[in-house]
Amino acid sequence: MSYLVLLDSSNTSLSVGLAKEDVLLDSVSYEAWQEQSEHMIPELNCLLDKHNVSREEITGVIVSVGPGSYTGVRIAITIAKVLATSLKCNLYEVSSLRVLKSGDNPSICLINARSGRSYVGVYKGNETILKDQIMTNDEVLNYIKSNPSYVVCGNTGYLSIKGYQSNICAEMVSLKSSLVKAENPMSVSPVYMRD
Question: What's CA 101's distance to the chain center, in Å?
Fold first, then answer.
């Protein structure tokens, strides 16, 4: 059997998942701001135990690499590197914005970058419409207004609008075929954006 571990702690929440043969088996996701490092490994161990999966059966890890919280992004990446190196399995990196998208729908994916700014990426399925970047919140709101058919995704309360909440782990699994395996897991690094 071939199992994939799915990890994201790039924003205020924590997502941990387990997939078998590229089908999501189980996942947990909840708010864990400034506590992701305490919960990620115990949640992963719970999923592995619940599904009777041994560490040796893990053949890959998908991790979101940012943009997002400086510390949050590093937590998931560090755990992913340790797993990939110690288990000698594949490591795949994915944008933390891309995993917020609404399936194949055109999606404006947002994370609060603070100071009146947002991390923004726009996707449709595996296609990138607008590459990950920083915009002011006013620019984001204008972009949303000029693209009314696009789904606004993410924890967008900071913009006073309701955003679609994706199943991050399910999106990771759906994107796997388009992700490139890291040649060296230790070379995977966080994506931090500056103006």
Answer: 10
- The angle, 0 to 180 degrees and rounded to 10, between the axes of the packed helices 70-87 and 36-50 is 40
CB 94 within 8 A of CB 107: no
Claim: this prediction has a pTM higher than 0.90: yes
Helices marked H in the chain: 36-50, 70-87, 137-146, 168-175
- Residue 146: CB partners within 8 Å, gap ≥ 6? none
Could you give the C-alpha distances from 147 to 27, 36, 128, 143, in angstroms and in order?
Answer: 32, 34, 15, 6
Amino acid in the structure at residue 61: V
Per-residue burial over 166-195, b = 16 or more CB atoms within 10 Å of its CB, e = otherwise: bbbbbbbbbbeeebeebeebeebebbeeee
**pLDDT tens across 106-139, in order?**
999 999 999 999 999 999 998 999 999 999 999 9
39 vs 125: CA distance, rounded Å: 30
